[in-house]
Automatic annotation (TrEMBL), chain A:
Name of this protein: Branched-chain amino acid permease
Pfam families, per the entry: AzlC
Keywords: Cell membrane, Membrane, Transmembrane, Transmembrane helix, Transport
Residues spanning the membrane: 20-38, 195-224
GO cellular component: plasma membrane
Family: Belongs to the AzlC family.
Species whose genome carries this gene: Nocardioides currus
InterPro entries registered for this protein in UniProt: Brnchd-chn_aa_trnsp_permease
Length: 228, 106
């Protein structure tokens, strides 16, 4: 087995993915630390905070869920906010499906390793994905994501007045970086502008979480806009 | 927060199950199949739409009203740096320092 050239290629891809993951894993650690601190302050227990990060492992969905919960929203609103935030994984799953071998269960299990950064980096640009690069890229990010949340949830109190630390700037900056990577064509740019404006317009009149959900409706322009 | 301890667990488990199902959808149902281009276009546009809504609501709103805070300045500076293709870790560090700096002097 060790001499199998496919195995060698897989190992090389895995290592390459892990190397490329370093900056994302570092930022992920601090970001999930801030999630841990904010979740504890919102009233979640340490166990709940760590469980949320370890079993959801989806930053934007976790923060969306947290902002609905912290803002006084209900169970259904919190879950749908997280679900809609994760809706982009539908598209990523569709794109990567042909690159994942095995039966439906095995493909579903491999699909769990898709996160924004790993999906983008594993994309070969010719319609196929390097799945071992995907796994290698996601693994360290999962590790630091969970560790960061443990540190934030357990030691967050000792950080003192976290409001003054500027941790709340990490989350928007991380997603701004992902957003800039999404603005490849005019349709994406206009959808982003439309979604941002609609969400802002709804902030004063809609319950927490709803502006972000409603913004996703802007993506429906994809139905009518047929770019030549 | 108005939810009880048990309700928070319900939210967490519900979110986790939904995340697993969403990630499994494509690989299970659409392995080796091609989708209508319009469907793919809509789902593809959801990423920039949601990410932008997420960024602007966390930077320009507080609770139920528009607001500009210290983190608005920090993220704005980082945004320019990201746009100039500076490393992510550096941009995040600057965002945190600028935000903390504004709070220290404000």
């Amino acid at each position: 087995m060790a001499a199998d050239p496919d195995d060698e290629g897989a190992r090389a891809s895995f290592r390459r993915g892990a190397r490329l993951a370093v900056p994302f894993a570092i930022v992920g650690f601090v970001l999930s630390l801030s999630f841990g601190v904010l979740a504890r302050r919102a009233g979640l227990s340490a166990g709940q905070t760590i469980a949320a990060a370890a079993i959801m492992f989806a930053g934007s969905a976790q923060f969306a869920m947290l902002s609905v919960v912290a803002g006084g929203g209900g169970v259904a609103a919190a879950i749908s906010a997280a679900g809609l935030m994760n809706a982009r994984f539908l598209a990523m799953g569709v794109a990567i499906a042909p690159s994942l071998p095995g039966g439906p269960l095995r493909r579903a299990a491999q699909g769990q390793s898709v996160i924004d950064a790993s999906w983008a980096l594993a994309n070969r640009g010719d319609g196929t994905f390097d799945r071992w690069l995907l796994f290698g890229n996601t693994a360290p990010q999962y590790l630091t994501w969970t560790l960061g949340t443990v540190v934030g949830a357990v030691f967050g109190d000792t950080l003192g007045d976290t409001d003054r630390l500027g941790l709340d700037a990490i989350y928007p900056t991380f997603f701004l970086a992902l957003l800039l990577g999404e603005l490849r064509d005019p349709a994406s740019r206009w959808a982003a502008v439309g979604g941002g404006l609609l969400a802002l317009a709804l902030v004063p009149v809609a319950p927490p979480g709803v502006p972000i959900l409603a913004a996703s409706a802007v993506a429906l322009v994809g139905l009518v806009r047929r770019s030549a | 927060m108005t939810l009880s301890y048990a309700e928070v667990w319900l939210v967490i488990v519900g979110c986790a199950v939904l995340t697993v199902l969403i990630k499994a959808c494509g690989p299970v149902l659409l392995g080796g199949r091609t989708l209508p281009a319009t469907f793919t276009r809509v789902v593809t546009l959801m990423a920039p739409t949601l990410l932008c809504a997420l960024v602007v609501t966390s930077v320009l709103a507080e609770g139920g009203s528009w607001s500009v805070g210290a983190q608005t300045g920090g993220v704005a500076v980082a945004g320019v740096m990201l746009w100039r293709r500076l490393p992510l870790v550096l941009c995040v560090l600057v965002a945190v320092l600028v935000t903390a700096g504004i709070r220290a002097v404000a």
